[in-house]
Automatic annotation (TrEMBL):
Keywords: Signal
InterPro entries, sorted: AB_hydrolase_fold, Mycobacterial_A85_antigen
Keyword flag S-adenosyl-L-methionine: no
Gene3D superfamilies: alpha/beta hydrolase (3.40.50.1820)
The protein's name: Esterase
Highest taxon in the source lineage: Bacteria
Range of residues in the leader sequence: 1-19
Length: 571
């Protein structure tokens, strides 16, 4: 009887599976005649306010995405997306309620890399868009079409990706902003194909008129900058539209405020008393993310050394940088905040100070809300009886927007093997050892959240900045005294202040030497607070340059070695 029941159950399951719809996704030869590797993303949206590919997020208003990997998909050949495809926020197409939807498909193209390590991996090389699958030039996509979907009806729904995302135009040089691109020998050797580093360089006022001046260098770390951000020679038009509303800040006309701040910085930059320095925004997108995190990595290669010993010297050569550690500084927020502190710690003699605002987790005891060393599961609190989800994002009042599981499942739908191009995947790509398949070893099971303690131990020894400082303070401390400054809102949207508290506890008790820097918090300030308590967060987040450059000048005056050039650039 038991065997008969099992047989009937299996038969019923098979019949139900046969009754479910599937999507047949293809592209014509008119889009490309080449067979393609990549990830087919099927998108379903309940409205047409914008294309479905632009409606996927961690927030409650997200629409649906389902993904499958393809290898050598040929023109006219169909990729099948059915109930077995992993999805977000519905895990399966079988869970999607019946109704009308706008359907769209995108093929996120992968390139084959033959790494120095001997592994072959397939990854989406950045093509100038900053690792956005829905904007990447060369990706194929379909026009949205309205359909009626019923998960209990057998049907084949064809989707044809006959559109190609066009190339992105590179920025042009101006009087003050120059662009540089360097072929990296180190990265080219690791990745097995030409790899470049780029930068947008803001020249000081009077650069051409003072040919004998040499300048300090400020490296402004952050996400992939399309051009130098926050600097505009022209003010916003008087009639600029101010109807845009930003719920996070509760204000209208924020775009005009941003444009005005950029022009105000230009006026500061060209004023009589503002310090004359070079400010550099680095372009270093990787096949995993819009940014390398500016350190060496087992899975991504020697980005830290490439930036430090190839790109920065070339910038200083071309634009008359002083080229010594006392005259180099680094700052940034979020990703850039982590990078600023990390490069100061890992290259302690090469920089004279870091200003780390709202840094990504600087200790993995507080990997946002997860302690990867003690916790067993990243998605739920450890409990024998309850499943209490860990929050992933909040507003300034603590209202939860999504969970850690939500964020990771969205990434898993977008890409396996850390290929989503998003936040948790890049942390894993940077911090993890390389797995036997050549991809980063997962810190946890992306579906279940179960943490791998061996990987966690590797993270601690190599990238946990608090652990590294504690472990090596005897040798690092004398090189870092007076150089560390950290700022964070105490209601950071991603709980990044938790790690800052732990870092502050250690720094305050340092001796021989005392760290001699600064840690400060913004009351109810959210992500990207830069350390200015006199301005609301929506203004302070736009003033990194004007906030930090005067502090850098003060640090130079206090710490420059005897005989240092303190005059040629002070005109």
């Amino acid at each position: 009887m038991r065997y008969l029941y099992c047989f009937l159950f299996s038969l019923l399951t098979a019949l139900v599976a046969q009754a479910q719809p599937l999507f047949s996704v293809s592209f014509p030869a008119s889009a490309t005649s080449t067979a393609l590797d990549g990830r087919v993303l099927l998108l379903l949206a309940k409205d047409a306010k914008t294309e479905p590919r632009f409606q996927i997020s961690d927030e409650a208003d997200t629409q649906l995405v389902f993904g499958v990997d393809v290898d050598g998909l040929k023109p006219g050949q169909a990729a099948t997306v059915n109930s077995s495809a992993f999805g977000y926020p519905r895990k399966s197409l079988a869970d999607v309620p019946a109704g009308e939807y706008y359907v769209q498909a995108v093929l996120h193209r992968y390139e084959t890399f033959r790494l120095k390590t001997g592994h072959t991996v397939k990854l989406p090389m950045d093509r100038g868009e900053g690792q956005h699958w829905n904007l990447a030039p060369g990706n194929l996509y379909s026009k949205p079409v309205k359909i009626r979907y019923n998960p209990r009806t057998k049907q084949v729904i064809p989707v044809v990706m006959d559109q190609v995302i066009p190339p992105i135009e590179e920025p042009k040089d101006t009087k003050y902003i120059k662009h540089i691109k360097v072929l990296s020998k180190r990265l080219t050797e690791f990745w097995g194909r030409p790899m470049y580093l780029g930068a947008h360089v803001l020249l000081p006022y009077g650069f051409d008129e003072h040919p004998n001046a040499r300048f300090p260098l400020c490296v402004f770390h952050g996400h992939f900058p399309a051009d130098f951000d926050g600097f505009s020679e022209t003010p916003p038009p008087a009639d600029m539209d101010t109807s845009d509303y930003v719920p996070r800040f509760g204000i209208y006309g924020y775009k005009k405020r941003v444009t005005q701040e950029a022009h105000d910085f230009y006026k500061q930059w060209t004023s009589k008393d503002f310090p004359r320095m070079l400010i550099v925004e680095i372009q270093h997108p990787t096949p995993y993310y819009d940014d390398s995190y500016a350190v060496n990595s087992a899975s991504m290669g020697p980005w830290g050394d490439a930036i430090m010993y190839e790109l920065i010297p070339e910038i200083e050569r071309q634009f008359r940088g002083i080229g010594q550690g006392w005259a180099r500084f680094t700052y940034g927020g979020s990703t850039g905040g982590w990078e600023a502190l990390a490069v100061q710690v890992m290259y302690p003699d090469e920089f004279n100070g870091c200003f780390a605002a709202c840094p990504d987790p600087i200790t993995f005891q507080a990997y946002t809300v997860v302690d990867i060393y003690k916790d067993q599961n990243a998605y739920y609190l450890d409990s024998p009886h309850k499943r209490t989800p860990r929050p992933g994002k909040r507003d300034y009042l603590g209202h939860v927007k999504c969970t850690v599981e939500d964020m990771n499942h969205r990434e898993l739908a977008l890409g396996t093997n850390s290929r989503s191009g998003d936040q948790w995947d890049i942390w894993q790509a940077v911090f993890s050892p390389q797995g036997p398949d050549g991809y980063p070893k997962p810190i946890w099971d992306k579906r279940t959240g179960v943490i791998d303690k061996q990987v966690a131990a590797y993270w601690r020894e190599n990238y946990d900045l608090l652990h590294i400082l504690k472990r090596d303070w005897k040798t690092l401390g004398p090189k870092l005294a007076g150089k560390i400054r950290i700022y964070c809102g105490d209601m950071d949207n991603f709980y990044l202040n938790n790690a800052v508290y732990l870092m502050e506890d250690f720094l305050k008790q340092t001796r021989n030497p005392h760290y001699g820097g600064e840690v400060a918090y913004g009351d109810r300030a959210e992500h990207c607070w830069n350390g200015d308590p006199t301005q609301p967060n929506y203004i302070s987040r736009l003033r990194y340059n004007s906030m930090y450059v005067p502090k850098i000048l003060k640090r130079i005056e206090e710490s420059a070695p005897k005989g240092a050039d303190l005059t040629s650039w002070r005109y």
